[in-house]
Amino acid sequence: MKKLRTFVFAAFAACVVIPASAQFAKVEDAIKYRQSALFVMQQNFGRVAGMASGKIPFDAKVAAESVAVAEFVAKLPWAGFGPGMDKGESKAKPEIWANKTKFDDYASKLQTEMAKLNVAAKSGNLDAIKAAVNATGGACKSCHDDFRNK
Q1: Residue 121 within a domain
Q2: DSSP states along 53-76
Q3: Residue 68 in contact with residue 22, Cβ under 8 Å?
Q4: Rounded to an integer, what distance in angstroms lies between the CA atom of residue 50 and that of residue 28?
Q5: 92 three-class SS
Q6: Do 44 and 69 form a contact (C-beta atoms < 8 A)?
Q7: Does this model's pTM top 0.90?
Q8: So what's the pLDDT on residue 23?
Q9: Residues paired with 92 in a beta bridge
Q10: CA distances in angstroms from 131 to 45, 50, 52, 58, listed in the order given
């Protein structure tokens, strides 16, 4: 059963990622795609981070909804960082393509932390959300530090 589940998940992921990378007729399209996905993720994560820091009043329902969107969108931008998509105007450093394994590891870490944040947000426990926000924000920061121009 576990193998079947893994196969189904891998097939689903391939169906999502392969068409996404095939849709980029121009490098600019890939840049717009990844920037848009990252923007939506940041907006939703930022809302919850604001609640965790006390800058925004805590609303468990809004937090759970926002994190659910952020977790889903966290799976999307990486198709926009494929081979040959390192040209054009972007804050992405060339190191992404020179050290793709490390970059992919960071993307995976972000998705893992975002999933943990989703569990915390569904619980409605603000202390659990705060801890998960810190871990998720750390995953974002480490990637930005190594792979994003300021």
Answers
A1: yes
A2: HTSS---HHHHHHHHHHHHHHTTS
A3: no
A4: 32
A5: strand
A6: yes
A7: no
A8: 75
A9: 148
A10: 14, 13, 9, 15
Tokens representing 54 are 């006390």
Q: What is the pLDDT along the chain (150 residues), one digit of tens a residue?
A: 555 444 444 444 444 444 444 579 999 999 999 999 999 999 999 999 999 999 999 999 999 999 999 999 999 999 999 999 999 899 999 999 999 999 999 999 999 999 999 999 999 999 999 999 999 999 999 999 999 998
Would you call 130 exposed, middle or buried from its count of C-beta atoms within 10 A (0-12, 13-18, 19+)? middle
In a domain, 17, yes or no: no
**Domain limits for position 35:** 22-79+90-147
Residue 13 placed within a domain: no
- Which DSSP string corresponds to 23-54? T-SSHHHHHHHHHHHHHHHHHHHHHHHHHHHT
CATH number at residue 34: 1.20.120.10
Strand partners, 148: 92
In a domain, 9, yes or no: no
Count structural domains, the chain: 1
